[in-house]
UniProtKB/TrEMBL annotation:
PANTHER family per UniProt: V-TYPE PROTON ATPASE SUBUNIT A, VACUOLAR PROTON ATPASES
Region (Disordered): 685-713
Cellular location(s): Membrane
Lineage: Eukaryota, Metazoa, Chordata, Craniata, Vertebrata
Main location: membrane
Membrane disposition: Multi-pass membrane protein
UniProt biased composition (Acidic residues): 696-706
GO molecular function, one term: ATPase binding
InterPro entries linked: V-ATPase_116kDa_su, V-type_ATPase_116kDa_su_euka
Protein name listed in UniProt: V-type proton ATPase subunit a
Annotated family: Belongs to the V-ATPase 116 kDa subunit family.
Entry function: Essential component of the vacuolar proton pump (V-ATPase), a multimeric enzyme that catalyzes the translocation of protons across the membranes. Required for assembly and activity of the V-ATPase.
Length: 847
């Protein structure tokens, strides 16, 4: 990883006719350059290679249909280890013909299969209808009613003399309509029959036992077989229309049992034949799709690359002779040799008689920002770029973030046990990363964790370190080196007796007694503090001061990094008028606070700790010029504090007025051509707009030189008010930010204590309950207790607390650290790279 973005250049590519396709293909495989659009005023439909792009889109449509059919049959599409190259233009038509033939064949087979399935469903429904309606007829033959009898219609009653009904005397014939209807429509269907036919129909229905597929929608649903008996042709027409309105599937009703049996036998034979034919059709369709799936991945990649190449060719412009394509690209200076090699290889593949070449051209436009990363550093670079893409050639915070980000996280998350669990999880993802990449999971949460696996690994390792410093492992301390505190010395020196133990519930070890305290613990916090009642007060003081020390060092480092930007962009005046005042203001106030913390730790011991003054009181008195009656922390403290306050206060007007007055002097002063030349340079790279500032590393700074050719014209007017207003905002933000940012680092103390207390509460309320049972039953009871403890540890302490610490560490980097030197207003370098192109089929889950 580099400490600033790579140097870029603008280049013209002259691609000879006939080899332009192969040259762009080579560039896409290497991913070296970012193309600029030379036809911004031309619409997408009026460009030269529109027909080729439409052909690629047609092939994408066919491939989409093919992949959906493959997915329906649950055939896996094998991936290739190496991505296939873009096919030459002469093979494009061959691939198009193959895909069209395959589409026609699949469409025909699919239509035949659908027709066979429809016939099979119709025959199955007909079979169910015949079986169920037979029960209706048999129940009627046993003089059981087929449905409700309507006594209010005397025409339906049988005459006792003639034995005929009124409808039969009028010449009306009895008719039947049978079929199937969806279960949800039966009630409405029955009401409609009653209202329209005035009771001149008899409806009988029964539900089919098995679920059937709807012929029109393809959905599986419950169906009902119905039999409608009616008198007269007019009633029959009404019944027919009602059945059509409710999308009923009607089938002919046999007149007698012999005809019904013959139809059922015929249906069984036809269903068996259809099943055989359908099985052979599905086998043939599977064979075709299996063969197509072997080439599907290659076709998808080739079509994607072809379409991308023609899109790039549409960005190019033709020269006046129409024999050469001209492209403009941003390219890293270090990759120019590779760019020339790619053009030579493309010209060789395209059998061009005239080679393609590259020409570097000057430009006043702001180049894009390129920071090369690998699989380890890409996650940390993503954290930085979430704030904003760095300006061109600006100092990048990413290399320092690799250390500072997991360290600040670990300060808030410090626990040896939790750090080990997090490290093992991240290490598993790192060791199995190749297998995980092949799976291509669509789970967004898992993808987020997997892409940040190296960040999680570093956070876990640093958490192990800080856990050892805090001597915390699942809220318990480890007595590795043995405590430096001794209880025995209190009895030896007759400070304690047996009566003292009996009469006091709490006892205090006095380090001033010889032998009680033998020295500091070799590494981290002494484990005896885990037993102390005042443990929280001790850790509060320690972690709060530690947070302030870390915060001031972190912010000072950010201010120091800004000097590298000033020197690189030839802004030496900013070193004296911005960097030095900012650093002096920060160190004279908060650097002095850190000095007092360290001095108090070193100067006062156990014997004179009661005489140690309060740092906070001294720091407040430093601003209000009071506290002369307080004991000083060290000799000469008052004079030093007055000196530091004066230096800090003098830094403010320098920050506020120094840069605006200097720029005004450069523009209005009387130094001949140096005046305008110097102002032009400063204007282009000042006002913290380094994104628009090219580097003039090759220019000398001798006075009296003429203006360098190719620069921007000089501004006609200098607006002193704008510059002063901008600098006023910057000064106020920095001065107030030093106070608020230092206080913001106290979150390290707060979250560290919160994490430790949550861990202690979880141990006391869950794990300790299982450990208290000393009988054999306790061993069995300990298993679910440990499972609950592990689940709560992972969900609350690792996931929720880890996410909280992650977000707070992110804020400390974005707001407190990066704003001291990093502007993040640049444009990211987006190379033309086939491996970075999105695939519509992967987004749709077809690959």
């Amino acid at each position: 990883m580099v400490f600033r973005s790579e140097e870029m250049c603008l280049a013209q590519l002259f691609l000879q006719s006939g080899s332009e396709y192969d040259c762009i293909s080579e560039l896409g495989e290497l991913g070296l350059v970012e193309f600029r659009d030379l036809n911004p005023s031309v619409s997408s439909f009026q460009r030269r290679f529109v027909s080729e792009i439409k052909r690629c889109e047609e092939m994408e449509r066919i491939l989409g249909y093919l992949l959906r059919e493959i997915q329906k049959t649950r055939i896996a599409v094998p991936d290739e280890d190496e991505s296939p190259l873009a096919p030459p233009p002469r093979q494009v038509l061959e691939i198009m013909e193959q895909l069209q033939r395959l589409e026609m064949e699949l469409s025909e087979v699919a239509r035949n299969k659908e027709k066979l399935q429809r016939n099979l469903l119709e025959l199955t429904e007909y079979t169910h209808m015949l079986k169920i309606t037979r029960t209706f007829i048999h129940s009627r033959s046993r003089h059981e009613a087929l449905g409700p009898q309507y006594e209010e219609f005397p025409t339906m009653e049988t005459d006792s003399v003639t034995g005929c009904t009124g409808m039969q005397r009028l010449g009306a014939k009895l008719g039947f309509v049978s079929g199937l209807i969806q279960r949800v429509k039966v009630e409405a269907f029955e009401r409609m029959l009653w209202r329209v036919c005035k009771g001149y129909t008899i409806l009988s229905y029964a539900e089919v036992d098995e679920n059937l597929t709807d012929l029109d929608t393809g959905e599986i649903s419950k169906s009902v077989v119905f039999l409608i008996s009616f008198w007269g042709d007019q009633i029959g027409l009404k019944v027919q229309k009602i059945c059509d309105c409710y999308h009923c599937h009607l089938y002919p009703h046999p007149e007698n049992d012999e005809e019904r049996a013959d139809v059922l036998d015929s249906l069984r034979t036809r269903i068996q034949d259809l099943n055989n034919v359908l099985h052979r059709t599905e086998e043939y369709l599977r064979q075709v799709l299996q063969k197509a799936s072997e080439s599907a991945y290659s076709w998808v990649v080739q079509v994607k690359k072809m379409k991308a190449i023609y899109h790039i060719l549409n960005l190019c412009s033709f020269d006046v002779t129409n024999k050469c394509l001209i492209a403009e690209v941003w390219c890293p200076v270090s990759d120019l040799a590779n760019l020339r090699g790619a053009l030579e290889e493309g010209a060789r593949k395209g059998d061009a008689t005239v080679p393609s070449f590259v020409n570097r051209i000057p430009s006043t436009d702001t180049p894009p920002t390129l920071l090369r990363t690998n699989k380890f550093t890409s996650g940390f670079q993503s954290i930085v770029e979430a704030y904003g893409v760095g300006d061109y050639r600006e100092v990048s915070p990413a290399p320092y973030t690799i250390i500072t980000f997991p360290f600040l996280f670990a300060v808030m998350f410090g626990d040896l046990g939790h750090g080990i669990v997090m490290s093992l999880f991240a290490l598993w993802m790192v060791l199995t990363e190749k297998q995980q990449k092949k799976k291509r999971s669509s789970n967004e949460i898992w993808e987020t964790f997997f892409s940040g696996r190296y960040i999680i690994l570093m956070m876990g390792i640093f958490s192990i370190y800080t856990g050892l410093i805090y001597n915390d492992c699942f809220s318990k301390s480890l007595n590795i080196f043995g405590s430096a505190w001794s209880v025995k010395a209190m009895f030896t020196n007759q400070q304690w007796t047996n009566k003292t133990l009996q009469t006091n519930s709490l006892l205090t070890l006095d380090p001033n007694v010889s032998g009680v305290f033998t020295g500091p613990y070799p590494f981290g916090i002494d484990p005896i503090w885990n037993l102390a009642v005042n443990r929280l007060s001790f850790l509060n003081s320690y972690k709060m001061k530690m947070s302030v020390v870390i915060g001031v060092i972190h912010m000072s480092f950010g201010v120091v990094l800004s000097v590298f930007n000033h020197l690189h962009f030839r802004q030496k005046f900013n070193v004296y008028l911005l960097f030095l005042p900012e650093l002096l203001f920060l160190l004279c106030l908060f650097g002095y606070l850190v000095f007092m913390i360290l001095y108090k730790w070193l100067a006062f011991g156990a014997r004179d700790s009661s005489q140690a003054p309060s740092i906070l009181i001294h720091f407040i008195n430093m601003f209000v010029m009071q506290g002369k009656d307080l004991a000083p922390l060290f000799p000469g403290q008052t004079g030093l504090q007055i000196f530091l306050i004066v230096i800090a206060m003098l830094s403010v007007p320098v920050m506020l007025l120094g840069k605006p007055l200097y720029l005004y002097w450069l523009y209005r002063g009387g130094k001949g051509l140096r005046r305008r030349r110097g102002y032009e340079r400063v204007r282009r790279v000042s006002e913290d707009d380094t994104s628009a500032a090219p580097s003039y590393e090759d220019e000398d700074e001798e006075e009296g030189l003429d203006e360098t050719p190719g620069r921007e014209p000089l501004p006609k007017e200098f607006d002193f008010g704008d510059v002063l207003l901008y600098q006023s905002i910057h000064t106020i933000e920095f001065c107030l930010g030093c106070i608020s940012n230092t206080a913001s680092y106290l979150r390290l103390w707060a979250l560290s204590l919160a994490h430790a207390q949550l861990s202690e509460v979880l141990w006391g309320m869950v794990m300790r309950l299982g450990l208290r049972i000393t009988t054999r039953v306790g061993v069995v009871f300990l298993v679910p207790v440990f499972g609950l403890f592990a689940a709560l540890t992972v969900s609350i302490l690792l996931v929720m607390e880890g996410l909280s610490a992650f977000l707070h560490a992110l804020r400390l980097h974005w707001v407190e650290f990066q704003n001291k030197f990093y502007h993040g207003t640049g444009v990211k370098f987006l190379p033309f790279d086939f491996s970075l192109l999105p695939s519509v089929f992967e987004q749709d889950g077809l690959l």
